[in-house]
Amino acid sequence: MVTDQATYNKKKFRNEILIFIVKLVVYFGVLYVNLTQHTYFEKYNWLGRMANALSLFLGANILISIGWIVLISWYLRKNRLQRLTRDNFVLGLNRISSVLNTVVFLVALMNFTGLNLKETFFSLSIAAAAFALLTKEYVANMINGLIIMFSDQLSLGDQIRVGEYKGKVLDITLINVVLQNDDDDIVLIPNSVIFSSMVLNQSKQNIKKLTIEFELDLKYQSSPDMLERELKASLRPYASNITENSFSLKILEIKKDLVHYKVQFLIPRPDKETERKMRRMLINTILSFSGREINEQENAD
């Protein structure tokens, strides 16, 4: 059975509300036990530490969840977005809440084991400083990831190009940006690379360029004007998908036996399927020139 996105979002939102209610019930239950079972906890110290650690973790987790709900609701209402929309701001808050919950869990775990929090934090701060120096690239990736999430320059679903890689942004984590290329392969690009490289975001443009480079043998005696006319003619069925007067055919290089061409035009409404059909039509037309040359040679013989 196929479930549409709206139905999926509603079910997911209901599940999150249910989980939040369960956490509240468990938290108040633990608080009640803490307040009424002092003598029992004095007899079994480890149970008392467990109850304190659990109440600390659940209380902090509930506060983080309330803050998350308030900020998300304010942001979605401000931008008139649907609940559970995958947006950079929402994604950034999710990552931050996960980090905070992890920190709270570690504090609760130390509380359960009976460690002195002040001494432990002091020791951990020294270890963390040394660890940060050793893993500065990892830390830089995390910081860059948060900056990308809370900026509007790169969003989920954007079509981008980074160096030799291009594709659709599927996810932004604290470590890398996840791309899906035209072959449906998953490409992971570190956030530091995104931050230090030139990124072409095609989705932020109102138009998209379609470019094909190819080479033709000099034996085929055809002028660039004739070649351009035939390529334009092959795209006539897709004229409504091409920006007027944007078609161009350029000679990039003339070699000993070959001419290196580049054909380029603008697509006002990017459509992956239409783009694929136009690209194939152009390639078939280009390949037909080599076939004509062979036929001409056979006729001459």
UniProtKB/TrEMBL annotation:
<dbReference type="Pfam" id="PF00924">
    <property type="entry name" value="MS_channel_2nd"/>
</dbReference>
<feature type="domain" description="Mechanosensitive ion channel MscS">
    <location>
        <begin position="138"/>
        <end position="204"/>
    </location>
</feature>
<feature type="transmembrane region" description="Helical">
    <location>
        <begin position="88"/>
        <end position="109"/>
    </location>
</feature>
<protein>
    <submittedName>
        <fullName>Small-conductance mechanosensitive channel</fullName>
    </submittedName>
</protein>
<dbReference type="GO" id="GO:0016020">
    <property type="term" value="C:membrane"/>
</dbReference>
<feature type="transmembrane region" description="Helical">
    <location>
        <begin position="121"/>
        <end position="139"/>
    </location>
</feature>
<keyword id="KW-0472">Membrane</keyword>
<dbReference type="InterPro" id="IPR023408">
    <property type="entry name" value="MscS_beta-dom_sf"/>
</dbReference>
<dbReference type="InterPro" id="IPR006685">
    <property type="entry name" value="MscS_channel_2nd"/>
</dbReference>
<dbReference type="InterPro" id="IPR010920">
    <property type="entry name" value="LSM_dom_sf"/>
</dbReference>
<keyword id="KW-1133">Transmembrane helix</keyword>
<feature type="transmembrane region" description="Helical">
    <location>
        <begin position="17"/>
        <end position="35"/>
    </location>
</feature>
<dbReference type="GO" id="GO:0008381">
    <property type="term" value="F:mechanosensitive monoatomic ion channel activity"/>
</dbReference>
<feature type="transmembrane region" description="Helical">
    <location>
        <begin position="55"/>
        <end position="76"/>
    </location>
</feature>
<keyword id="KW-0812">Transmembrane</keyword>
